[in-house]
Amino acid sequence: MTHPLHEKYSRQMLFAGIGPGGQEHLRASRAVVVGCGAIGAATANLLVRAGVGHLRILDRDFVEASNLQRQTLFEEADAREALPKAIAAERKLRAINSDVTVEGIVGDLNAGNAEELLAGYTLILDGTDNFETRFLMNDYSVKSQTPWIYAAAVSSYGLTMAIRPGKTPCLACLLESSRRVGLEETCDTVGVLGPIVNLIASLQTAEALKLLAGCESTLHERLLSCDVWSGRMQSVAPERHSNCRACVRRDFSYLEGQVQPHITLCGRDSVQIHERNRSLDLQALLQRLSSTLSDVRQNGFLLRFRADNCEVTVFGDGRAVVKGTKDPAVARALYAKYIGA
Ligand SMILES: [Zn+2]
Fold it and tell me: What is the distance between the alpha carbons of residues 261 and 241, in angstroms, rounded to a whole number?
């Protein structure tokens, strides 16, 4: 390791658990963060500062003002410009540590692209906000023998566990048995505090550093849960489920299942329309819509307009988020009317 790098990571290499050998391991590692909200952003920040070799960030969303209270990579200007989170994160992280190859991808992880987007990574990290995507990641992990780390938080409470196929229980062992330990509420219904998401991201990243620095024997293999409001902390060693769908029966229904539903509700009074294999020319769409609508904006990554009391955000891959309705039919009608059926 050359001298400037030696200086940059000196305090981490002084730590006996990592040392110069662990730092070299980190530098050669490749990690992917799925979802770049609060937990994903904080995790990506810590991994890039720690000197991971390559980090891919996958996110389908754009920055909004309501994110800034807890999503530590983003600024007011990102929200004003409605930058995709993957792009805003990539820019910020490259400025933080130019030694790391950072790659932001604007998109939605689904059964159709998971094997392509997750292949070749040492570790998968959880920055998602829904169990559908987590079970998809778990299926991929078990099938490909790639470790991943589960991390979730809502309100003042959160939990995390590193999952290593063949060595620890998997997410289906934990959540598909009778003992449910997942989170049912969402940040859109009961809110979420900055401290809990950053705490869970820190716990997740500590396990990630052990894995990526080649110190697997030091992983604690426990499910940690914390509540920063009550002060309750818990550490349990979950057991594998003897008839687990994923890691025992090897039924990967999320990974091999039907393609994603065409339309999904995504909390916060929004409907997401998933369009497949459709590439949109946002500049041409801007010109076409500007002739009939007064407030159409395009930033190179997405286009946004207001129509019929809804705000429609369209991405280059044809995906759209319609805010202001919970009715898929209303969203679909708007999409057909302004973007095309
Ligand atoms: Zn299992």
Answer: 29
Quick check: pTM over 0.70?
A: yes
Which three-class secondary structure state does DSSP give residue 204? helix
**Could you give the strand order of the β-sheet that contains 233-236, starting from the edge strand earlier in sequence?**
101-106, 54-59, 30-34, 123-126, 148-154, 157-163, 223-227, 233-236
Q: Give the Å distances, CA to CA, from 47 to 8, 222, 224.
A: 14, 21, 20
CA end-to-end span of the chain: 55
Q: What values do phi and psi take at 172, rounded to 5?
A: -65, -35
Quote the ligand 1 centre to 242 CA distance (angstroms): 8
> pLDDT confidence of 190, banded at 50, 70, 90?
confident
Catalytic residue among 170, 173, 187, 244: 187
CA 244 to ligand 1 centroid distance, Å: 5
Residue 264 CA to ligand 1 center (angstroms) comes to 27
Rounded CA-CA distance 133/139 in Å is: 10
Contact between 310 and 324 under an 8 Å Cβ cutoff? The reply is: yes
Alpha carbon distance 196, 187 (integer Å):
12
Provide the pairing of β-strand 223-227 with 233-236: antiparallel
Is residue 244 annotated as a catalytic residue, yes or no? no
AA letter at 46: L
CB 285 within 8 A of CB 327: no
Q: List phi, psi (to 5°) of 304.
A: -135, 140
Instruction: Give the CB-side neighbour count of residue 7, counting CA atoms within 13 A.
Output: 2
Q: How far apart are CA 103 and CA 33, in angstroms?
A: 10
DSSP letters along 124-151, please? Answer: EEE--S-HHHHHHHHHHHHHHT--EEEE
Residue where the block lists tokens 């687990």:
244
Tens of pLDDT along 35-74? 999 999 999 999 999 999 999 999 999 999 999 999 999 9
236 phi/psi in degrees, rounded to 5: -125, 155
